[in-house]
Specification:
The protein has about 200 residues and is mainly alpha-helical. About 70% of the residues lie in helices and about 0% in strands. It has a domain at about 60-180: Tetracycline Repressor, domain 2. It has 9 helices and no strands. Helix 1 (about 5-20) packs across helix 4 and helix 8 (about 140-165) runs antiparallel to helix 9. The radius of gyration is 18 Å and the shape is elongated. The N and C termini lie far apart (about 40 Å). The mean pLDDT is about 95.
């Protein structure tokens, strides 16, 4: 029988493939190879506890592949920024991969998980904008570009999922590093005075 850690890794794959709403108990049993009794032994709270375990694993990925990159002061800020973009790109290499927003913020799951995903949004934007500022880009421009990246990235993932084709996603991601580090007066997608989301 698989241990809980292995079960969680399979649940991560499943939830980010089908989303919370689309992940049925039957699909969970098939993916993990565990029967209902074993699943409830590992996750007494059922699907809700499984989802929390998936989000904890997602948070840990962020610590390992994003936060530690930001904190690596031995590398130039520009290199750290590009590495973050590359790590996010590698995470979503499969056309079927959902982002946390699409996996947990649609349907009945939205009320329960949207706050957690919002924190993910703001956390990534803060990390990216700080690195851009360290590269000499004015903070207001850096913050706007970080939100532009977030919107473009999420939108490209949705298009990839719908079209079953990563062409647009790959083309946009290839352009992002150049744009994020472009001179401050380079026109962006958002107007300079566009209102930006604030943390909760």
């Amino acid at each position: 029988m698989e241990d809980r850690e292995t079960a969680v890794s399979r649940l991560v794959e499943l939830f980010f493939e089908l989303g919370y709403e689309g992940t049925s108990l039957k699909a969970i049993e098939a993916r993990t190879g565990l029967g209902r009794a074993s699943l409830y032994n590992y996750f007494p709270g059922g699907k809700t506890e499984m989802a929390r375990a998936v989000l904890v694993a997602s948070d840990q990925w962020g610590v390992d592949h994003l936060m530690r990159v930001v904190q690596d002061g031995a590398r130039p800020a520009s290199e750290r920024l590009l590495r973050i973009v590359g790590n996010l790109d590698a995470l979503h290499a499969r056309p079927s991969q959902l982002s946390p927003a699409n996996a947990f913020c649609i349907g009945d799951a939205a009320d329960q998980y949207t706050g957690h995903v919002q924190d993910h949004f703001h956390g990534l934007v803060e990390m990216m904008s700080e690195l851009m500022a360290a590269c000499g880009i004015p903070r207001d421009v850096a913050l706007r570009r970080a939100w532009e990246f977030r919107v473009v990235w999420e939108g490209a993932l949705v298009c990839t999922r719908v079209l079953g084709d990563q062409g647009l996603y790959r083309a946009l991601m290839a352009r992002m590093p150049t744009y994020l580090l472009a001179p401050a007066d380079t026109p962006g997608l958002l107007a300079p005075d566009a209102p930006l989301p604030r943390p909760r």
